[in-house]
Specification:
Length: 396
């Protein structure tokens, strides 16, 4: 397919404001499902025992990673519209199974399937990039990512409120209804696009390795974003340990409310996208990394004794991470337009691997050196992400 054939996808495929809004809602609504269980762990432990606190959230996150790796690349060969409809419909069934789970094994298996199918959120982002004209791709990706990030940040709050009033099963019943709603939204708003050249699944997966080898920009973008995501997870994996201890003595609900501050950071995504459209992605990635470094400097200076410093750190981390993410996504989606799903798989797989490392490193640092150790780890990781972009070869 020639470059000219893709110059005006908005005109050819009817990329309307309704489709743009639909993808935004689907991205946020789908990804929220892997975080609903986290505020409910106390209730789940009370019913199924202590193992529920390990197996349920782990299964949903592992499933999401498997979905990114195994399902998202299919969007480069099959209709993304049909994939999103199928995944959200299956998601409703899996959520209903979770709500009716009689034991921990059933709930963990349901959580695994929920995670796999929730990767529909990662179908929505490359779909938006595919539909958007080149001149506005950054702002379009930014809007859809705002939906995804808001879904992540508000899922815990909504789940906690519903679970406290009506029990944990009510959360999954409600989520099943929302998933059915997303199926309807996808069917009503997403345009039908002629199927691209189909590839066998084995060839599709092997081509991911070729993309990694042949695209240095993809490798650098994934590495820099992975390092920033690692610092982000080092912070969030230890925040509750900080604020639930003296001098703050907050409850778990109080610790969770810091996620609401992060919503402000999510809304920087469209601004980052528009700036990237005008000035290119590299300045925004560098600025985002500097924001994260500055956040850990603030947290090191005052996070141990001031909730204002903690709140400011949360805001700066989320602004920096999200700004860099939108710029990196815009940059890599432009590399091989016919492989955006597989490119998305590489980017987010690397992010999740680094994120797991960051959570582990942050927890270990907290045990060994307290809050200052966490901040040191965060600065080192974010600083490395900054250097990856500063040292990027000229003309890259």
């Amino acid at each position: 397919m020639s470059g000219g054939a893709q110059a005006d996808p908005a005109g050819r495929h009817g990329f309307t404001p309704r489709a743009r809004l639909g993808l935004t809602l689907i991205a946020g609504g789908a990804v929220a499902n892997i975080y609903y269980n986290q505020p409910l762990l106390g209730l789940l432990v009370g019913e199924f025992g202590e193992r529920a606190a390990l197996w349920v959230p782990t299964a949903s996150l592992v499933g999401y990673g498997l979905g990114i790796l195994g399902l998202v690349p299919l969007g480069d060969s099959l209709s993304r519209r049909r994939l999103i409809i199928g995944q959200t419909l299956g998601l409703a069934v899996a959520l209903l199974a979770a709500a009716l789970s009689p034991n921990l094994t059933c709930l963990a298996l349901s959580s695994l399937v929920i995670g796999i199918l929730a990767s529909a959120a990662q179908q929505a982002v490359p779909f938006a990039a595919e539909l958007a004209p080149d001149a506005t791709r950054g702002s379009v990706v930014g809007q859809v990512m705002t939906g995804l990030l808001t879904g992540i940040l508000l899922a815990r709050t909504a789940s906690g409120l519903v679970g406290a009033q009506y029990g944990w099963r009510a959360v999954f019943f409600a989520a099943a209804v929302v998933a059915l709603g997303m199926t309807g939204i996808a069917a009503a708003t997403l345009p039908k696009i002629p199927q691209t050249r189909p590839l066998r699944y084995r060839a599709l997966m092997l081509s991911i390795l070729h993309l990694v080898r042949s695209q240095p920009v993809l490798r650098r973008s994934s590495l820099s974003q992975g390092l920033l995501f690692a610092s982000f997870n080092a912070f969030w994996a230890t925040l509750a340990l900080l604020v639930e201890a003296p001098p703050f003595n907050l409850t778990a609900a109080g610790a969770g409310m810091f996620g609401v501050i992060g919503v402000a950071g999510a809304f920087v995504a469209p601004l980052s996208g528009r700036f990237t459209d005008r000035r290119g992605p590299r300045p925004m990635v560098v600025a985002g990394a500097l924001f994260v470094v500055a956040a850990f400097a603030v947290l090191w200076a005052g996070g141990a004794w001031s909730l204002i410093a903690v709140g400011l750190g949360v805001l700066l981390i989320d602004i920096g991470l999200n700004a860099a993410l939108i710029a990196n996504q815009t940059r890599v989606y432009a590399l091989v337009p016919s492989a955006r799903g597989r490119i998305n798989t590489v980017l987010f797989t690397v992010m999740f691997v680094f994120g797991a490392f960051g959570a582990f490193a942050g927890s270990q640092a907290f045990l060994m050196a307290g809050w200052s150790g966490v901040c040191a780890v965060g600065i080192l990781l974010a600083g490395a992400g900054f250097l990856v972009n500063v040292l990027e070869p000229r003309g890259a």
